[in-house]
Amino acid sequence: MKELRMAERMEKMSGSAVREILKLTQQPNMISFAGGLPSPDSFPVAKLQEITNEVYSKSGAQMLQYGITEGYKPLNEFIAQWLKSSKNITASPEDIQITSGSQQGIDLVSRVFLNAGDQVVVESPSYLSAFQVFNSYQVKYLPIPSDDQGMQVDELEKALDDNTNKPKLVYTVATFQNPTGITMSLERRKKLLQLADKHKLIIIEDNPYGELRYEGEHVPTLKSLDTQGRVVYLGSFSKVVAPGLRIGYAVAHPEIRAKITIAKQAADVHSSNLSQQIIYEYCNRGYLDPHIQEICRAYGVKRDAMFKALDEHFPKAVNWTRPEGGLFIWAELPQGCDTTELLQKAVEHRVAFVPGTPFFVNNTGQNTLRLNFSNATFEQIEYGIAKIGEVIKEYLTVNC
Amino acid sequence: MKELRMAERMEKMSGSAVREILKLTQQPNMISFAGGLPSPDSFPVAKLQEITNEVYSKSGAQMLQYGITEGYKPLNEFIAQWLKSSKNITASPEDIQITSGSQQGIDLVSRVFLNAGDQVVVESPSYLSAFQVFNSYQVKYLPIPSDDQGMQVDELEKALDDNTNKPKLVYTVATFQNPTGITMSLERRKKLLQLADKHKLIIIEDNPYGELRYEGEHVPTLKSLDTQGRVVYLGSFSKVVAPGLRIGYAVAHPEIRAKITIAKQAADVHSSNLSQQIIYEYCNRGYLDPHIQEICRAYGVKRDAMFKALDEHFPKAVNWTRPEGGLFIWAELPQGCDTTELLQKAVEHRVAFVPGTPFFVNNTGQNTLRLNFSNATFEQIEYGIAKIGEVIKEYLTVNC
Fold it and tell me: Which of B105, B164, B312, B391 is the most buried (most CB within 10 A)?
């Protein structure tokens, strides 16, 4: 089409080369560790079906009508009390905005806070679809390196002391991070909150994986430690009930929540009432916590299976993370390797992963890759990791 | 909270005074013509319940998993063939992006095209929640007056010939407009398309009410007349099936559709799979067109009842539109009247409407108001319009 005058923000929002390769992973007989999908075996189909039927019988016409933007009130109330009991987060129902997945939460908070040219602090690496959102607001990035304790908050402090950096927002997946699986230490969380207070930063704590702990001790959420109302907490039912219903939530100081609601009203009026009422009934009947335990058992053994396969089949030159939860393991090949090239070879052998580069805002990480363990069978994990190990060995011999 | 540095766009996105008054309309025993709600009696609850049950039985686990951003493929395919058969719009499934209501369509198209400071053409008056979206993109407006043939396209032509105006986008609810109920004439539609081509404009044709015709001849959609791919058509199932499921769609030239999909992916990944599959099954079983006929019969007689009540009870000094379809009637009181004051008096008598001012971008229309006829009983229409008529008469005596 001629002379389409698109918005400037779209220049930074083109599709990626990696996405094109990943389309190949949807071919039949492909073993893919590329997605971030929950296991379909984990979906409580029968219970949700029964509940859905009852939602129609009990309140069909009301459910099918327009709802209020903030959310289905009983769901907001449930979330408030569950955040208290499960994570010691003190929130009233008025602090909560229901969103269409936590992805929408990132978008709405960005809409409330970000002007073009504003600077956003991100972990390096971080969740690539958050970059898609931030790019659409034409921000600049302040990437902070991570280690096995999460974001190196001391590096953030140094960067903030440098007066050329004036970020407005920090985006962190502090627990079982995407893509690394790493959890930020309590000490760093406290330090991050101090920095936020000192420099008047808003922190988005994106926590879709927080419930998926397979070992180790719970680390308090930033939100539960936040006394200044500077944390906007994003939660999601995608990983603990089902992503296809698209229900998440944002928890924020009421002044911020009110603005998020205005942004949501413009964006899509409200989230699906049917989805909201299903999630509410599921939670209200006490199904949520036992289901989380069940998922954790199922994913924990898959993680262990992948650890075992990695130990057996990956060459010593490769390092990987050993997350206590979440969905992902992050691997680092020797410098000079290019995992996008490696993916092409892996796909020829009908196995797939995600190359690491798209998780960096500064075009680094060519030697890194992400593996998902939740959405594959044990056989696929054993066979697929062995195959990727072979491909890496061959690649290392020739290239690095 | 201290020192919240919000985005500049939020300055234009505050709640309105009218919204505060309208909260009063949710009190019990209030007869409200204020909303734009479909009648809950019109929702096909039993059929949707049955279908939903079958969706779970047939494809529960797949439906609960993440889906693709473009939409549930069979739904995109159904919409493409239905647009052809019902409106002579030629579109392939690849031209279609499923949205969470047509409201999200406005947002996504804005994200693709609008830079801060860009100019958007709107009918004066026009849909107030579209302004919420456009304000969030910090646009300037070029409001074009309307008459009983819709937007005065000659006035737009004059404005475009004036070189100080360089709009990028035209937003129109061309059929059964919100708030006036007016339909743009075929001649003006053709002229608008010529102007769009000449001045390289994108037209958003927002058509949530297009199926709701109670008399008169169908007027071709702008999209069906568009040979240049300049029209982005927004459709919705909110008014013809149920709004609570939040399913609409955007139809655009594939190059534009691809960008809308990128914007949607950042915004919320995809719309509820359950909602999409329910809508698809409902349509695929041939329920849609007979249901539209049924709604039209039901709303047509309500419109007639409101016409009758207006003729009987409203003073001669008031003029109102006589729409052939849609959900709204628009009334104009003598100059100098203030319908926001009038609403306060009406609410004291437990009847409500929407004052017209928020439907104008230039703070005019103080003497106008909108009435919805779809979501009230015949008794409420008769009693409520009589009561508003009384309040107006009293108001006219004292104030105008």
Answer: B105
Q: Does the interface ipTM go beyond 0.85?
A: yes
pLDDT of A19 reads: 66
Distance from the Cα of residue A101 to its chain's centroid: 10
- A315 Cα to chain B: minimum distance (Å): 33
Q: Is A1 in contact with B229 (Cβ distance < 8 A)?
A: yes
SS3 B343: helix
| CA–CA distance, B3 with B239 (Å, rounded to integer) | 42
A377, A374, A221, A236: which is closest to A295 by C-alpha? Answer: A374
CB contact under 8 A, A100 and B265: no
Element (H, E) at B156: helix B153-161
Cβ contact A233:A207 at 8 Å? yes
Interface of A with B in 350-369 (CB under 8 A): none
State the pLDDT confidence band at A18, using cuts at 50, 70 and 90. Answer: low
Statement: residue B106 has pLDDT above 90: yes
Query: Per-residue pLDDT for A218 more than 80?
Result: yes
Radius of gyration of chain B (CA): 21
Across the interface, whether the CB atoms of B229 and A129 are under 8 A apart is answered no
Q: Express each pLDDT in A62-85 by its tens digit.
A: 999 999 999 999 999 999 999 999
Nearest CB neighbour to B269, from listed A101, A112, A271:
A101
- What per-residue confidence (pLDDT) applies to A24? 72
Q: B243 — contact with chain A (CB < 8 Å)?
A: yes
Is B5 in the A-facing interface, judged by CB distances under 8 Å?
A: yes
* Interatomic CA distance for residues A368 and A365, integer angstroms: 5
- Counting Cα atoms < 13 Å in the Cβ hemisphere of A159 gives 22
**Mean pLDDT of the A293-314 span:** 98
Joined tokens for residue A117: 């040219």
Q: Tens of pLDDT along A87-112?
A: 999 999 999 999 999 999 999 999 99
Which of B37, B104, B266 lies closest to A136 in CB terms? B266
Number of residue pairs across A and B with CB atoms under 8 Å? Answer: 243
Average pLDDT over residues A46-67: 97
CA distance A118 to chain B (A): 9
Of A237, A233, A236, A229, residue with least CA distance to A220: A233
pTM: 0.96
* C-alpha neighbours within 13 Å on the C-beta side of residue A63: 27
Tell whether the torsion through CA atoms of A386, A389, A393 and A394 is positive or negative: positive
Q: Which of A65, A100, A278 sits opposite B268 (nearest CB)?
A: A100
Put simply, whether B19 touches A (Cβ < 8 Å) is no
Adjacency order of strands within the sheet including B140-147? B96-99, B248-251, B231-236, B202-206, B169-172, B119-124, B140-147, B150-151
Query: Is residue A320 helix, strand or coil?
Result: strand
Residues 185-204 of B with CB under 8 A from A: 200, 202
Tell me the two tokens of residue B65: 């998993």
Whole-Å CA distances, B173 to A36, B146, B150, B210, B324 = 40, 12, 9, 9, 14
Mean pLDDT confidence for B139-156:
97
Tell which of A3, A5, A239 to mutate to test the B interface (max B CBs under 10 Å). A5
> DSSP code of A107?
H
Identify the helix (H) or strand (E) that includes residue A234.
Answer: strand A231-236
Do A121 and A167 touch, CB atoms closer than 8 A? yes
CB contact under 8 A, A256 and B4: yes
In this predicted structure, what is the pLDDT of residue B19? 66
DSSP output for A46-92: HHHHHHHHHHHHHHHHHHHS---TT--HHHHHHHHHHHHHHH-----
Cβ-nearest to A115 among B8, B60, B269: B8
- Provide the pLDDT for residue A2: 59
- Number of residues assigned to chain A: 400
